[in-house]
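FAQ: What does the model actually see?

It sees only this:
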Amino acid sequence: MIANNPLSIVKLLLKAKRPSRLTDMPATKEAFWLRKGYDALTFFGTVLTHTQAEADRLNSCYDTLKNHEMIHLRQARSTHDSWLCFYMLYAWYYLRALPYNRQFKNAAYKLNPFEMEAYEHMNDLDYPKRNAEGANGWRRYAKMSIKERRKKTAEFFGSVSRNS
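And it is asked to produce this:
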């Protein structure tokens, strides 16, 4: 287990493998990097969780949360098989939607094409297997305007009205 401090993340970064070399992503407790309200975070091939119990659960069973994170692995494969490209694009889409956070809660996260694909398919546990070379559904969302994405987001998160 990695200690729960900001510098411990460097160990994970140094151990990172190319997305195509991973068949699974281990989970570990690293609550420092998780915002309240989020269950897990994919970080360079490792799933970060709030508690060791959550990490153990993700390491022992494949459920919708693990599937959501595995979709991010497939997305990284589709971005030149590079975690760096994946995170640069993720940050780009996050920042483009950030002004909409005033209109509804977590808009930058919810309107991110990578998250939209992951939420759309998280209940389909075979989705990552069918897209082993790379999940490209995010590209469809990236082509949509923010307004179109906001409309589509209502399907995954329910109402996206002001501060919901």
